[in-house]
Amino acid sequence: MKRIFILILALMLIALPSLAEPMTGLAFTTGTAEDGSLMFYFEDLSLRLPADWQEKVLAEPSGNSLAFYHRASYEKYLAEGLENGGFLFSLGASVNSSFSELPAFEYLGFSEISCMNYYLELPSDYPAYMGDEAVRAEYDAMYAQIGQIAQDAVIYGEDTAAPQDDVEATDDAGQGNRHL
After folding, report:
1. Residue 82 contacts residue 129 (beta carbons within 8 Å)
2. Rounded distance, CA 118 to CA 168, Å?
């Protein structure tokens, strides 16, 4: 009996650290729609980014979310030794409404499949690169389109599958950052 108890205790000590590890982000695939829009497909939803964002956006997993950055601002700040410049928004998921306490967000909706609320967290400051007027104007133009991205988001239901019929899929996995 004592051996069984010690064995169970040892197994619990081995298993606990793996249970405490945070999630590594939202798994996704990407594609390009016929109109050139960038598509991000997640388990419960899809995001359509405007076609003119090609080569201008960087997607980077960040904790339990996927953050999107204006590429030119991000790179300019990075050259100056600063990280996370050019932040546009991040896709987040929550089992409750705690996200409503964020300074700025766009609510996307609730998934009945996973029982998660999805939202876009927006910057609470102005993260465009300020040292170059053209870079700043490009950031402003992209930021102005985030409301439309939120409106175009599709949350899948039990009867709704990912609308990938007009999309050329890529083999991108949701790992690391990349320019799109």
Report:
1. no
2. 25
CA-to-CA dists, residue 8 to 16, 17, 21, angstroms: 12, 15, 21
Rounded Cα distance between 168 and 83, Å, is 32
* Burial tier of 164 (Cβ tally within 10 Å: 0-12, 13-18, 19+): middle
Q: What length does the chain have? A: 180
The tens digit of pLDDT for each residue in 167-178 reads 444 444 444 444
How far does CA 69 lie from the centroid of its chain?
10
pLDDT in tens, 141-151: 999 999 999 99
Q: What is the 3-state secondary structure (H, E, C) of 128-147?
A: CCCCCHHHHHHHHHHHCCHH
- Cβ–Cβ under 8 Å, residues 66 and 174: yes
Helix (H, G, I), strand (E, B) or coil at 38: strand
Alpha carbon distance 48, 150 (integer Å):
9
Question: pTM for the full model?
Answer: 0.76
Tokens 């964020």 belong to 102
DSSP 3-state percent helix, strand, coil across the chain (nearest 5): 30, 30, 40
